[in-house]
Amino acid sequence: MKHHQQTIKTPVSCSGVGVHSGKTVNLSIKPAPVNHGIRFVRVDLPGAPGVTAHFNNVVDTSLATVIGAEGCIVSTIEHLMAGLTGMSIDNAIVEVDAYELPIMDGSAGPFTTLIKSAGTLSQEGAKCYFKVNDPISLNENGKSVTIYPADEFRITCTIAYDHPLIGTQTCNFAIDRETFEKEISAARTFGFLHEVELMKRYGLARGGTLDNAVVIDGDRVLNDGGLRYPDEFVRHKVLDCIGDFSLIGMPIMGHVVASKSGHAFNHAFLEKFFEEKASWDTCTLAPDPA
Ligand SMILES: [Zn+2]
Question: Which residues of this UniProt protein bind Zn(2+) (predicted)?
Fold first, then answer.
C-alpha cells in the first residue's frame, strides 16, 4: 500500500470517440494538488465548469457511469477512473471538450499507457484509506456485493451468463499497479451483436465498433484476434468495479466480492457503505521508512 498521495508528473492527452455519442472528444489529464481528488472539467462550455468524481455526483448508471454538477455533465467515466485508480493516482484534473469520454479500445489499456507515460509524482500528503472493519453487504435479485476487512484492496468478481462462450467465470486479484496493468487494464467491454444492433436503432452505441468492444454473435467472438485473456469478460467486470468503487473518493482497504453486479448495483452498494458508518473508518499508514 502507498503512503503518499500521488498525481501525474506531466500533462498528457489523447482523443477518440464516445461510444454512445459517436462524437470525437479530446481528453487531457493534468497534475493536481494534494486532497484535490479527480475532477473533470468541460473546457467546451462557457466558464469551463467542473465536477468531482464522487458517487454523490452520479446522475445516471443505466448504460455507463455519468456524473454531473452545476451544468457540467460527463459520461462514461468508468474506464478512465479504473485506469487512474489502478495506477494509484489520487489527484488529477481531466479536461474534456465534449460530454462523453473517449471509449478508446473499450478497455483501460490506452489510459493506463497514457498515465504511465506521464510519470507519477509522490506528494507531500498522506494517502487516506477507507478501512473496512466489519463486512458490509448488499443482495438483490441474485446480485450481490460484500466488502470484507482486508489489509489490501482485493476484488473477487463472478459473472454468470447463460451463454456457451461466457458461462460462469470468477477471478480474484489484489489490485496494485503491476497487477492492474498486466492482468486487468487491457480487458475490453463486451456485448452481444443483437444488443448492439438494438442500441444503434435507438441512437445509442453510435461509436460502437469491433475496435472498442468484444462483440459476440451466437457462439463466436467477431473480433479478429479473439480474446485478450481467456476470461476477458470477468476481468472487464473487475475493471468496471475498480472504476465504480473509485467514486467512493479514497482508496479502499478491503476485499470486494461482487457477483453479477454492474454499474447501477455497485453505485447502490456505495450508498449502503456510507449508511453503515460503524463498519469502517478512515486511516493513513505510517510513513515510508527513510
Ligand atoms: Zn466497462
Answer: 79, 236, 240
